[in-house]
Protein backbone atom coordinates (compact mmCIF):
# COMPACT_ATOMS: atom_id res chain seq x y z
CA UNK A 1 0.00 0.00 0.00
CA UNK A 2 2.78 2.42 0.92
CA UNK A 3 4.63 1.69 -2.28
CA UNK A 4 1.45 2.29 -4.28
CA UNK A 5 0.85 5.62 -2.53
CA UNK A 6 4.45 6.66 -3.16
CA UNK A 7 4.17 5.91 -6.87
CA UNK A 8 0.92 7.86 -7.04
CA UNK A 9 2.55 10.89 -5.40
CA UNK A 10 5.54 10.58 -7.76
CA UNK A 11 3.25 10.54 -10.82
CA UNK A 12 1.43 13.65 -9.59
CA UNK A 13 4.72 15.43 -8.97
CA UNK A 14 5.97 14.55 -12.47
CA UNK A 15 2.86 15.91 -14.18
CA UNK A 16 2.14 18.95 -11.97
CA UNK A 17 4.83 21.67 -12.05
CA UNK A 18 5.72 23.20 -8.72
CA UNK A 19 5.26 26.91 -8.07
CA UNK A 20 8.98 27.55 -8.41
CA UNK A 21 9.09 25.72 -11.76
CA UNK A 22 6.05 27.59 -13.04
CA UNK A 23 7.68 30.90 -12.21
CA UNK A 24 10.46 30.10 -14.68
CA UNK A 25 8.14 29.27 -17.59
CA UNK A 26 7.38 31.95 -20.22
CA UNK A 27 4.00 33.57 -19.68
CA UNK A 28 1.79 34.13 -22.71
CA UNK A 29 -0.55 37.10 -22.52
CA UNK A 30 -4.24 36.51 -23.04
CA UNK A 31 -4.14 38.18 -26.47
CA UNK A 32 -1.30 35.91 -27.69
CA UNK A 33 -3.31 33.20 -29.39
CA UNK A 34 -0.31 31.17 -30.52
CA UNK A 35 3.46 31.46 -30.24
CA UNK A 36 4.09 30.16 -33.78
CA UNK A 37 6.59 32.01 -35.94
CA UNK A 38 5.02 34.61 -38.25
CA UNK A 39 6.10 37.31 -40.68
CA UNK A 40 7.38 40.51 -39.03
CA UNK A 41 4.98 43.47 -39.42
CA UNK A 42 7.55 45.63 -41.25
CA UNK A 43 8.81 42.96 -43.66
CA UNK A 44 9.75 44.03 -47.17
CA UNK A 45 10.38 40.60 -48.68
CA UNK A 46 8.94 37.93 -46.38
CA UNK A 47 5.31 38.88 -46.81
CA UNK A 48 2.48 36.30 -46.81
CA UNK A 49 1.96 34.78 -50.27
CA UNK A 50 -1.11 36.27 -51.95
CA UNK A 51 -2.54 33.25 -53.73
CA UNK A 52 -5.39 35.37 -55.13
CA UNK A 53 -3.00 37.34 -57.36
CA UNK A 54 0.02 35.09 -57.96
CA UNK A 55 0.77 34.55 -61.67
CA UNK A 56 1.33 30.84 -60.99
CA UNK A 57 -2.41 30.21 -60.68
CA UNK A 58 -5.01 30.55 -63.46
CA UNK A 59 -7.44 33.15 -62.17
CA UNK A 60 -9.56 33.19 -65.34
CA UNK A 61 -11.05 30.62 -67.69
CA UNK A 62 -8.99 31.94 -70.60
CA UNK A 63 -5.68 31.50 -68.77
CA UNK A 64 -6.65 27.99 -67.62
CA UNK A 65 -7.46 26.85 -71.15
CA UNK A 66 -4.46 28.55 -72.75
CA UNK A 67 -1.94 25.84 -71.87
CA UNK A 68 -0.32 24.25 -74.96
CA UNK A 69 -0.33 20.91 -73.11
CA UNK A 70 -4.13 20.71 -73.16
CA UNK A 71 -5.77 18.97 -76.14
CA UNK A 72 -8.15 20.98 -78.32
CA UNK A 73 -11.34 19.39 -76.95
CA UNK A 74 -10.34 20.55 -73.45
CA UNK A 75 -9.50 24.06 -74.63
CA UNK A 76 -12.99 24.34 -76.08
CA UNK A 77 -14.58 23.24 -72.80
CA UNK A 78 -15.47 24.91 -69.54
CA UNK A 79 -13.65 25.45 -66.24
CA UNK A 80 -14.61 25.42 -62.59
CA UNK A 81 -13.02 27.23 -59.68
CA UNK A 82 -11.37 24.63 -57.42
CA UNK A 83 -8.80 24.44 -54.68
CA UNK A 84 -6.19 21.71 -54.61
CA UNK A 85 -8.10 19.11 -52.61
CA UNK A 86 -11.20 19.61 -54.78
CA UNK A 87 -9.14 19.10 -57.94
CA UNK A 88 -7.69 15.88 -56.52
CA UNK A 89 -11.19 14.73 -55.57
CA UNK A 90 -12.35 15.49 -59.13
CA UNK A 91 -9.46 13.50 -60.60
CA UNK A 92 -10.17 10.51 -58.35
CA UNK A 93 -13.89 10.57 -59.23
CA UNK A 94 -12.97 10.70 -62.93
CA UNK A 95 -10.60 7.75 -62.59
CA UNK A 96 -13.21 5.68 -60.75
CA UNK A 97 -15.82 6.50 -63.40
CA UNK A 98 -13.65 5.71 -66.40
CA UNK A 99 -11.90 2.56 -65.18
CA UNK A 100 -13.58 -0.12 -63.08
CA UNK A 101 -10.14 -1.42 -62.10
CA UNK A 102 -9.42 1.70 -60.03
CA UNK A 103 -9.63 1.22 -56.25
CA UNK A 104 -9.08 3.84 -53.55
CA UNK A 105 -8.19 2.90 -49.99
CA UNK A 106 -6.33 4.11 -46.93
CA UNK A 107 -6.92 5.26 -43.39
CA UNK A 108 -10.27 7.11 -43.09
CA UNK A 109 -10.71 7.62 -46.85
CA UNK A 110 -14.32 6.40 -46.87
CA UNK A 111 -15.52 9.57 -45.15
CA UNK A 112 -13.14 11.90 -46.98
CA UNK A 113 -9.81 11.55 -45.22
CA UNK A 114 -8.08 14.13 -43.04
CA UNK A 115 -8.02 16.70 -45.86
CA UNK A 116 -11.32 15.67 -47.52
CA UNK A 117 -9.65 14.64 -50.78
CA UNK A 118 -11.82 11.49 -51.02
CA UNK A 119 -15.03 13.12 -49.82
CA UNK A 120 -18.28 11.47 -51.10
CA UNK A 121 -16.39 8.96 -53.27
CA UNK A 122 -17.48 5.98 -51.16
CA UNK A 123 -21.10 7.14 -51.38
CA UNK A 124 -20.89 7.47 -55.16
CA UNK A 125 -18.86 4.36 -56.04
CA UNK A 126 -19.54 1.96 -53.19
CA UNK A 127 -17.52 0.45 -50.38
CA UNK A 128 -16.05 -2.22 -52.66
CA UNK A 129 -14.04 0.43 -54.51
CA UNK A 130 -13.46 3.14 -51.87
CA UNK A 131 -12.80 1.80 -48.39
CA UNK A 132 -10.92 2.22 -45.12
CA UNK A 133 -7.95 0.12 -44.11
CA UNK A 134 -6.46 -0.71 -40.72
CA UNK A 135 -3.80 1.67 -39.39
CA UNK A 136 -0.89 -0.13 -41.04
CA UNK A 137 1.10 1.61 -43.76
CA UNK A 138 3.04 -1.56 -44.53
CA UNK A 139 -0.25 -3.42 -44.93
CA UNK A 140 -1.73 -0.68 -47.15
CA UNK A 141 1.28 -0.83 -49.43
CA UNK A 142 1.46 -4.62 -49.51
CA UNK A 143 -2.21 -4.83 -50.47
CA UNK A 144 -1.74 -2.16 -53.17
CA UNK A 145 1.17 -4.07 -54.69
CA UNK A 146 -0.79 -7.31 -54.68
CA UNK A 147 -3.85 -5.96 -56.46
CA UNK A 148 -1.68 -4.00 -58.92
CA UNK A 149 0.14 -7.23 -59.80
CA UNK A 150 -3.25 -8.72 -60.66
CA UNK A 151 -4.11 -5.92 -63.09
CA UNK A 152 -5.99 -3.49 -60.86
CA UNK A 153 -5.13 0.22 -60.58
CA UNK A 154 -5.03 0.92 -56.84
CA UNK A 155 -4.74 4.45 -55.43
CA UNK A 156 -3.41 4.06 -51.90
CA UNK A 157 -3.44 7.00 -49.51
CA UNK A 158 -0.82 7.48 -46.81
CA UNK A 159 -2.46 9.89 -44.39
CA UNK A 160 0.71 12.00 -43.99
CA UNK A 161 4.03 11.57 -45.79
CA UNK A 162 5.55 11.43 -42.30
CA UNK A 163 3.84 8.06 -41.79
CA UNK A 164 5.20 6.33 -44.90
CA UNK A 165 8.36 4.94 -43.33
CA UNK A 166 6.87 1.60 -42.16
CA UNK A 167 5.90 1.03 -45.81
CA UNK A 168 9.41 1.60 -47.18
CA UNK A 169 10.28 -2.07 -47.34
CA UNK A 170 7.22 -2.75 -49.51
CA UNK A 171 7.94 0.25 -51.76
CA UNK A 172 11.65 -0.36 -52.20
CA UNK A 173 11.87 -4.14 -52.23
CA UNK A 174 8.51 -5.01 -53.81
CA UNK A 175 6.80 -2.22 -55.77
CA UNK A 176 9.92 -0.81 -57.43
CA UNK A 177 11.57 -4.19 -58.15
CA UNK A 178 8.54 -6.25 -59.16
CA UNK A 179 8.80 -5.95 -62.95
CA UNK A 180 12.57 -6.45 -62.91
CA UNK A 181 12.30 -9.48 -60.64
CA UNK A 182 9.51 -11.14 -62.64
CA UNK A 183 11.12 -10.47 -66.00
CA UNK A 184 9.32 -12.24 -68.85
CA UNK A 185 6.45 -13.30 -66.58
CA UNK A 186 4.96 -9.86 -67.13
CA UNK A 187 3.72 -9.06 -63.63
CA UNK A 188 4.50 -5.70 -62.03
CA UNK A 189 3.11 -3.10 -59.64
CA UNK A 190 2.53 -0.74 -62.56
CA UNK A 191 -0.75 1.06 -62.22
CA UNK A 192 -0.23 1.61 -58.50
CA UNK A 193 -0.41 5.21 -57.28
CA UNK A 194 0.50 6.22 -53.73
CA UNK A 195 -0.87 9.60 -52.61
CA UNK A 196 0.48 11.42 -49.57
CA UNK A 197 0.24 14.97 -48.16
CA UNK A 198 3.66 16.46 -47.53
CA UNK A 199 5.47 19.60 -46.41
CA UNK A 200 5.01 22.25 -43.76
CA UNK A 201 1.99 24.29 -42.80
CA UNK A 202 3.62 26.47 -40.13
CA UNK A 203 2.72 24.38 -37.10
CA UNK A 204 3.10 20.71 -38.01
CA UNK A 205 6.29 20.13 -36.00
CA UNK A 206 8.14 16.81 -35.99
CA UNK A 207 5.57 14.39 -37.40
CA UNK A 208 3.36 16.42 -39.75
CA UNK A 209 5.81 18.59 -41.72
CA UNK A 210 8.27 16.34 -43.48
CA UNK A 211 9.19 16.46 -47.17
CA UNK A 212 10.70 13.01 -47.87
CA UNK A 213 10.60 13.15 -51.67
CA UNK A 214 14.34 12.67 -52.15
CA UNK A 215 14.13 9.27 -50.42
CA UNK A 216 11.84 8.03 -53.20
CA UNK A 217 13.98 9.51 -55.99
CA UNK A 218 16.74 7.09 -55.01
CA UNK A 219 14.56 4.10 -55.91
CA UNK A 220 14.76 3.01 -59.58
CA UNK A 221 11.37 1.89 -60.81
CA UNK A 222 9.26 4.59 -59.14
CA UNK A 223 7.97 7.86 -60.53
CA UNK A 224 7.86 10.74 -58.04
CA UNK A 225 5.46 13.60 -58.78
CA UNK A 226 4.56 16.82 -56.96
CA UNK A 227 1.99 19.29 -58.38
CA UNK A 228 2.02 23.03 -57.70
CA UNK A 229 -1.66 23.85 -58.28
CA UNK A 230 -5.19 22.45 -58.72
CA UNK A 231 -5.03 22.40 -62.53
CA UNK A 232 -1.70 20.62 -62.40
CA UNK A 233 -2.87 18.21 -59.70
CA UNK A 234 -5.86 16.98 -61.69
CA UNK A 235 -3.91 16.38 -64.90
CA UNK A 236 -0.84 14.85 -63.26
CA UNK A 237 -2.85 12.60 -60.93
CA UNK A 238 -4.90 11.20 -63.81
CA UNK A 239 -1.67 10.61 -65.72
CA UNK A 240 -0.16 8.83 -62.71
CA UNK A 241 -3.18 6.55 -62.28
CA UNK A 242 -3.08 5.65 -65.98
CA UNK A 243 0.69 5.14 -65.97
CA UNK A 244 2.10 1.63 -66.05
CA UNK A 245 4.77 2.61 -63.54
CA UNK A 246 4.23 2.72 -59.78
CA UNK A 247 3.88 6.42 -58.93
CA UNK A 248 4.45 8.37 -55.73
CA UNK A 249 2.13 11.39 -55.83
CA UNK A 250 3.06 13.97 -53.21
CA UNK A 251 0.60 16.74 -52.38
CA UNK A 252 1.79 19.94 -50.61
CA UNK A 253 -0.78 20.08 -47.83
CA UNK A 254 -0.47 23.84 -47.34
CA UNK A 255 -1.90 24.27 -50.86
CA UNK A 256 -5.02 22.13 -50.28
CA UNK A 257 -7.10 25.21 -49.52
CA UNK A 258 -4.72 28.07 -50.22
CA UNK A 259 -4.22 27.46 -53.95
CA UNK A 260 -7.44 28.18 -55.87
CA UNK A 261 -7.75 28.49 -59.64
CA UNK A 262 -9.90 27.70 -62.65
CA UNK A 263 -9.61 24.02 -63.60
CA UNK A 264 -10.93 22.45 -66.83
CA UNK A 265 -13.99 20.31 -66.17
CA UNK A 266 -13.18 18.03 -69.13
CA UNK A 267 -10.97 15.00 -68.60
CA UNK A 268 -7.28 15.65 -69.38
CA UNK A 269 -3.81 14.46 -68.43
CA UNK A 270 -0.50 16.28 -68.23
CA UNK A 271 2.83 14.73 -69.25
CA UNK A 272 4.90 12.96 -66.61
CA UNK A 273 8.67 13.54 -66.42
CA UNK A 274 8.23 16.83 -68.29
CA UNK A 275 9.18 20.11 -66.64
CA UNK A 276 7.32 23.33 -67.38
CA UNK A 277 8.85 26.76 -67.97
CA UNK A 278 6.54 29.04 -65.99
CA UNK A 279 8.34 32.25 -66.82
CA UNK A 280 11.03 32.88 -69.40
CA UNK A 281 14.14 34.90 -68.58
CA UNK A 282 17.71 35.51 -69.68
CA UNK A 283 19.90 36.11 -66.61
CA UNK A 284 19.18 33.41 -64.00
CA UNK A 285 17.38 30.04 -64.02
CA UNK A 286 15.44 29.06 -60.89
CA UNK A 287 14.27 25.45 -60.61
CA UNK A 288 11.74 24.36 -58.01
CA UNK A 289 8.55 22.35 -57.44
CA UNK A 290 5.49 22.37 -55.19
CA UNK A 291 4.82 25.21 -52.76
CA UNK A 292 8.30 26.86 -52.91
CA UNK A 293 7.48 27.92 -56.47
CA UNK A 294 5.27 30.62 -54.95
CA UNK A 295 8.17 31.79 -52.80
CA UNK A 296 10.38 31.90 -55.89
CA UNK A 297 7.78 33.82 -57.88
CA UNK A 298 7.49 36.47 -55.16
CA UNK A 299 11.29 36.80 -54.95
CA UNK A 300 11.56 37.08 -58.74
CA UNK A 301 8.98 39.84 -58.88
CA UNK A 302 10.84 41.88 -56.27
CA UNK A 303 14.38 41.31 -57.56
CA UNK A 304 13.44 42.09 -61.17
CA UNK A 305 11.97 45.40 -60.00
CA UNK A 306 15.04 46.20 -57.89
CA UNK A 307 17.83 45.08 -60.24
CA UNK A 308 16.27 45.25 -63.70
CA UNK A 309 17.15 41.66 -64.59
CA UNK A 310 15.23 38.78 -66.16
CA UNK A 311 14.77 35.40 -64.44
CA UNK A 312 13.51 32.09 -65.80
CA UNK A 313 11.37 29.92 -63.51
CA UNK A 314 10.97 26.16 -64.06
CA UNK A 315 8.62 23.72 -62.31
CA UNK A 316 10.07 20.20 -62.35
CA UNK A 317 6.65 18.61 -61.64
CA UNK A 318 8.11 15.08 -61.86
CA UNK A 319 11.08 14.75 -59.53
CA UNK A 320 12.16 11.33 -60.80
CA UNK A 321 12.82 10.68 -63.59
CA UNK A 322 13.19 14.44 -64.06
CA UNK A 323 13.36 16.47 -67.26
CA UNK A 324 17.06 17.21 -67.81
CA UNK A 325 16.57 18.50 -71.35
CA UNK A 326 14.41 21.47 -70.32
CA UNK A 327 16.69 22.33 -67.40
CA UNK A 328 19.91 22.09 -69.42
CA UNK A 329 18.47 24.20 -72.23
CA UNK A 330 17.56 26.95 -69.76
CA UNK A 331 20.93 26.94 -68.01
CA UNK A 332 22.75 27.10 -71.35
CA UNK A 333 20.76 30.27 -72.01
CA UNK A 334 21.17 32.02 -68.65
CA UNK A 335 24.51 30.74 -67.33
CA UNK A 336 23.32 30.93 -63.71
CA UNK A 337 21.15 28.50 -61.76
CA UNK A 338 19.45 28.19 -58.37
CA UNK A 339 17.51 25.15 -57.14
CA UNK A 340 14.91 25.73 -54.42
CA UNK A 341 13.04 23.15 -52.37
CA UNK A 342 11.50 22.81 -48.92
CA UNK A 343 13.12 19.48 -48.02
CA UNK A 344 16.42 19.63 -46.16
CA UNK A 345 19.43 20.52 -48.25
CA UNK A 346 21.59 17.44 -47.72
CA UNK A 347 21.07 14.78 -50.43
CA UNK A 348 17.95 16.58 -51.63
CA UNK A 349 16.56 16.89 -55.15
CA UNK A 350 18.59 20.09 -55.51
CA UNK A 351 21.82 18.18 -55.01
CA UNK A 352 20.99 15.85 -57.90
CA UNK A 353 19.95 18.70 -60.20
CA UNK A 354 23.04 20.75 -59.35
CA UNK A 355 25.36 17.78 -59.90
CA UNK A 356 23.76 16.93 -63.24
CA UNK A 357 24.13 20.53 -64.46
CA UNK A 358 27.80 20.65 -63.46
CA UNK A 359 28.55 17.22 -64.94
CA UNK A 360 27.08 18.10 -68.33
CA UNK A 361 29.83 19.64 -70.53
CA UNK A 362 27.47 21.99 -72.37
CA UNK A 363 25.98 23.48 -69.21
CA UNK A 364 29.18 23.43 -67.12
CA UNK A 365 31.14 25.48 -69.64
CA UNK A 366 28.29 28.02 -69.75
CA UNK A 367 28.06 28.56 -65.98
CA UNK A 368 28.99 32.04 -64.75
CA UNK A 369 28.64 30.99 -61.09
CA UNK A 370 28.35 27.76 -59.09
CA UNK A 371 24.85 26.31 -58.92
CA UNK A 372 23.18 27.49 -55.71
CA UNK A 373 20.79 25.50 -53.49
CA UNK A 374 18.19 27.17 -51.29
CA UNK A 375 16.53 24.52 -49.15
CA UNK A 376 15.42 23.52 -45.69
CA UNK A 377 18.02 23.32 -42.96
CA UNK A 378 19.27 19.88 -41.98
CA UNK A 379 17.33 19.71 -38.74
CA UNK A 380 14.05 18.27 -37.53
CA UNK A 381 11.12 20.64 -37.93
CA UNK A 382 10.69 22.67 -34.72
CA UNK A 383 7.13 23.59 -33.77
CA UNK A 384 7.67 27.25 -32.89
CA UNK A 385 10.18 28.00 -35.64
CA UNK A 386 8.90 26.04 -38.61
CA UNK A 387 8.85 29.06 -40.90
CA UNK A 388 12.56 29.66 -40.26
CA UNK A 389 13.60 26.18 -41.37
CA UNK A 390 12.27 26.37 -44.94
CA UNK A 391 13.22 28.76 -47.78
CA UNK A 392 11.63 32.19 -47.71
CA UNK A 393 11.57 35.11 -50.15
CA UNK A 394 14.57 36.81 -48.57
CA UNK A 395 16.78 33.71 -48.88
CA UNK A 396 15.86 33.27 -52.57
CA UNK A 397 16.38 37.01 -53.18
CA UNK A 398 19.85 36.87 -51.58
CA UNK A 399 20.79 33.79 -53.60
CA UNK A 400 19.85 35.55 -56.83
CA UNK A 401 22.12 38.48 -55.89
CA UNK A 402 24.90 36.05 -54.99
CA UNK A 403 24.95 34.30 -58.38
CA UNK A 404 24.78 37.66 -60.18
CA UNK A 405 27.69 39.11 -58.20
CA UNK A 406 29.93 36.05 -58.39
Automatic annotation (TrEMBL):
Residues 82-258 form the Transketolase-like pyrimidine-binding domain. One of its GO terms (molecular function) is branched-chain 2-oxo acid dehydrogenase activity. It comes from the Eukaryota. GO terms for biological process: branched-chain amino acid catabolic process; generation of precursor metabolites and energy; response to nutrient. Keywords: Oxidoreductase. It catalyses: N(6)-[(R)-lipoyl]-L-lysyl-[protein] + 3-methyl-2-oxobutanoate + H(+) = N(6)-[(R)-S(8)-2-methylpropanoyldihydrolipoyl]-L-lysyl-[protein] + CO2. Its EC number is 1.2.4.4. Its cofactor is thiamine diphosphate. It is an enzyme of class 1 (oxidoreductase). CDD domains: TPP_PYR_E1-PDHc-beta_like (cd07036). PANTHER family: 2-OXOISOVALERATE DEHYDROGENASE SUBUNIT BETA, MITOCHONDRIAL, 2-OXOISOVALERATE DEHYDROGENASE SUBUNIT BETA-RELATED. This is 3-methyl-2-oxobutanoate dehydrogenase (2-methylpropanoyl-transferring). It comes from Pseudomassariella vexata.
Amino acid sequence: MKASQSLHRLARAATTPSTSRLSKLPILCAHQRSPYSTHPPNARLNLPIDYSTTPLLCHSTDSALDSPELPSHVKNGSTKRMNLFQAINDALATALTQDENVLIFGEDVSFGGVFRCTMKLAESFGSDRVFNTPLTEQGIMGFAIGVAAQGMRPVAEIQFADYVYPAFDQLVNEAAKFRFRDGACGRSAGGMTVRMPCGGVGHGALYHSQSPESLFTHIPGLRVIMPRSPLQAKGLLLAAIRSNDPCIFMEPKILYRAAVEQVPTTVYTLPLSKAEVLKEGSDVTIISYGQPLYICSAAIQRVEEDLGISIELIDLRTLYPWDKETVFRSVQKTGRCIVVHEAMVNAGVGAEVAAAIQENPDTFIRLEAPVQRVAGWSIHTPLLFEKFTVPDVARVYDSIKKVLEY
